[in-house]
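Ticket #4471: structure export looks truncated?
Reporter: QA, pipeline team
Priority: medium

Steps to reproduce: submit the single chain below to the structure queue and open the exported record.
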Amino acid sequence: MKLPTRFSRAVRRGAQRAMIYASILGPGLITASADNDAPGIATYSMAGSRFGYSFLWIIVWITLGEVVVQEMAARMGAVTGKGLTDLIRERFGLRLTFFIMLGLVLANLGTTAAQFAGVAASAELFGVSRYIAVPVAAAAVYLLVTRGSYRNVEKVLLVLSMFSVAYIASAILVKPDWSEIARQALVPRLQFSTDYLLAVLATVGTTITPWAAVYMQATVADKGADIEHFGHTRLDVISGAALGNVVSAFIIISTAATLFVRGITVESAEQAAVALAPVAGQWAEILFGVGLIAASLLAASVLPLATTYAVCEVMGWARGLNTRRADAPAFYGLFAGLIVISTLVVLIPGLPLFLLMWLSQVANSLLLPIVLVVMLLLANDQLIMGNWRNRRIINIITLVLAVLVTAASLALFWAG
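Actual output as written to the record:
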């Protein structure tokens, strides 16, 4: 009788820990999962098909950078109860805030359109016209976000985040060489070709984005996270970034194991899905397509929210999903406008969707170094952060990231 009793207690303890962990999941997991959006999936697919497993060590180090930036944003949100652009306006004035906000709006508009391009591409994999799929998806995103409280919206977004396991399943189906994968992930092998360096920099730009920092800080503040119990939020941020980049790694693994070894190079996520089918079977293609549409819907919900939060913070307008529509007409109107414009852009006949995704990443890479430097100044301000200021190691990592992404921008212009 003792063994079953001990076993049942262990099961109960495990279930309790799982429930506690599930209860704290939120902004961290959602933000990291939304980073695996249509442009992100396209970037990882290209990296895997061009460079194979040798690209995996990059993901390991990018995870560290993402954890640092997102933790800093979440900590500022918990300490101040304010969003990032709100703090920028108070600390640096309206002029700098306006230019940052303008860049954020333009970059996010392009990236939101890229998400609906992802919906269009994944729908066409299953034989559904984009002229049907995209308007339906846009309506679904609008109703999801505007018809519920923050907690209800968060639950749905968390469910969409879980669909990213489709990429893990897709990679397992192709039966890769796991010992070789482990070796390549742990042993850096930097190539000095232009294509490789641009792929590295594009991966940094698509993983650590300005909108993600804005969304993280705004949602932590909107959720009312308590700084005295910030450990729970920090765990959400760290585990979310880790899980999100595990998915990124599996996208690279699945395309490297099937396409790179056969010399097949892809330039978009949907091409990767189609190319997987003859090699790994129809299920791999289906799983890849399902993951793409779920990721696109998730990011199409998050990106307009990040933009809307930023604009409303700067203008001093009422905002937040817990605010009634009548009390925050600008917040809900801007959100609807971003979705409508993005949808119309994607439905333009003959529009090169891949070019749209690439341009959105260029805009993000131009804006990110400025945002990182401003975040550093805010997070080290004694009057704003008190005893929750940055530690030196966080400042060093963030500065290195800013330099790297600046190099990415210069490299993209030089290559173009």
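Status: closed, not a bug. The export was complete when the record was re-opened. Leaving a note from the reviewer for reference: Residues 14-24 have pLDDT under 50 and may be disordered.
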